[in-house]
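call fold(seq) -> tokens
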Amino acid sequence: MGIALGTLLACFLLIISIFNGNSAVQMNQITNTILGVIASVFCGLGAVLCTSYSKQLNSVGWTSSMILTHRFYGIVLLSFIFTYDILFDYFFDNVLWIVLVTIAGVLIPMYLLQKGIQYCETFLVMMSLCFVPVFTFFFQLFDPRLSWSTTTLIGVILLFLLGVFSIYVEKK
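ret:
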């Protein structure tokens, strides 16, 4: 219970830092910020549900490749709906980058994640994802468009430590 409350408070710290202008990205449009926070919550819930469902499919004999072939229907459909007017021009101008990012940034990580789901407990897989914000934070340091945010660093470290501690408690 304490870990869950701490995680919730760390998330609130990060959300409040966005609205106070203390995050690395300065948001001027409050509507977009609210929509981004809501989308993040739904993405988190979706990740948990997707991981649980993938684990169930694994237990009835589906391979990682079989699961991955059906995983992106909704994302592809939504992406097409929101980009149909610029999709083809953009695609043909950037086809090499799209292929590289698709392979290195989507296919390989998703395959490895699916293998983790197959061989590990769902809880361990979801908690190991607490490493992602740490990497993201430090990769963002190389982006000149973003500014340093101590509040974001504190929030990310709190989420990381709580995630690691929850794995320790679960194993104990």
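The two ends are 16 Å apart (CA to CA).
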